[in-house]
Design goal:
Shape: globular
Largest sheet: 6 strands, antiparallel
Structural class: mainly beta
Radius of gyration: 21 Å
Order of helices and strands: HEEEEEEEEEEEEEEEEEEEEEEEEEEH
Distance between the termini: 12 Å
Strand content: 35-45%
């Protein structure tokens, strides 16, 4: 076999897969139809430049985008997932405690909504996780405690699964190592703090971005040195690999599997751009997309807290072998961007690879 030729064709196959992943503005989103709902645009008061909005989530049961904001009080705004229009507010009665009573928000596959506070010392001031059965429900306390470790907790939150199998990951602050895994049905938490022998993640490596890929896999980041890919069992965690991002300021993140492609979206807390990484092989991630809906030259209020959130919407079958998925990205102080990410049909890539191998078997003639 001509190994040089084989390598070249393998590279071509990989490049073709990467080139067919596209990211484009959601042109129905925002008053200007540019995919960017800027702070204060349209006269709304709950999305500003003071760093008071840090969590967003997408409710798969309703198609709504939910925004947790402390702008004008503790509120959860319900936004239309296609246009960003304000549809009202969820009930925040009974929400209290913590450094901030509300901070991050996430939704399970069954439409249940989970809201977390922020505490700078969970050993003395409890981390609280609230559960809403739906957008019209009243909050109940699903968990209250140290979240597995006496630490700063609540800057990041990721929800995985549904029903009694729902799990919630929360990152620890910069002085602590690891993350907490909460079972909201049982009201219990385990701190993944036992990392064994090096290499290990550093302290605070899950404090600014966290995303559960499965019930045993967690990605996280605080910027440098990059996104950490880990697995865990009980309190024992294992660092499997590190993704070096396009920019060191890429911290905010969310994970999805779209038409067979495992994708990690990361947003910069600097200029607010979004990068898409194919992590189908998490030990060999590939940068496959870049998006920024904020016009060149627009002045952005600095995100001094490096806070915010990224969330994927519901997948869409385009009927032509490709699939698309909305992606929402909010770097605090810089508004909400909405994108449409499209990926190719995996089978077409497999056919291309098989064709390349057949070519080789014929001697490359």
């Amino acid at each position: 076999m001509n190994l040089k030729l084989y390598f070249g064709i393998s590279t071509l196959v990989a490049f073709t897969a990467q080139a067919q992943v596209t990211i484009a503005p959601m042109t129905t989103f925002s008053p200007d139809h540019d995919g960017w709902w800027a702070p204060g645009e349209g006269g709304q008061t709950y999305l500003g430049t003071g760093g008071l909005e840090r969590g967003i989530t997408f409710n798969p049961a309703t198609g709504h985008l939910l925004l947790a904001s402390r702008n004008g009080g503790n509120v959860i705004r319900i936004l239309d997932g296609s246009t960003g229009a304000d549809l009202g507010a969820m009930n925040t009665a009974g929400i209290s405690g913590g450094t901030y009573a509300i901070n991050m928000i996430g939704a399970a596959n069954d439409g249940a909504i989970y809201l977390g506070n922020l505490t700078t010392a969970s050993g003395t001031t409890a981390f609280k996780l609230y559960r809403y059965a739906n957008e019209g429900a009243t909050a109940t306390v699903a968990y209250s405690g140290a979240a597995g470790l006496a630490a700063r907790v609540g800057d990041t939150l990721s929800v995985f699964g549904s029903g009694s199998a729902t799990r919630v990951a929360v990152g620890y602050g910069s002085g602590s190592l690891g993350y907490g895994i909460i079972d909201p049905t049982a009201g219990t938490a385990v701190g993944v703090t036992n990392w064994g022998a090096p290499p290990n993640p550093g302290t605070g490596d899950f404090r600014l971005g966290i995303a559960m890929a499965s019930d045993t896999e967690v990605w996280g980041s605080q910027g440098s040195p990059g996104a950490r890919y880990t697995t865990f069992s009980g309190d024992k965690g294992t660092l499997q690999g590190t993704l070096t991002p396009f920019s060191v300021s890429e911290r905010l993140m969310d994970y999805t599997v779209l038409n067979g492609h495992a994708l990690l979206a990361m947003q910069s807390t600097g200029d607010s751009h979004v990068s898409i990484y194919d992590v189908t092989n998490p030990l060999n991630p590939v940068n496959v997309g870049y998006g920024l809906n904020i016009p060149n030259g627009t002045s952005l209020t600095a995100n001094a807290n490096a806070s915010g959130d990224v969330v994927w919407g519901n997948a869409i079958d385009n009927g032509d072998g490709t699939w698309s998925q909305p992606l929402y990205a909010m770097s605090s102080n810089q508004g909400i961007q909405a994108f449409i990410v499209t990926v190719p049909e995996p089978s077409s890539l497999a056919l291309l690879a098989l064709g390349a191998l057949a070519f080789l078997r014929r001697g490359g003639k």
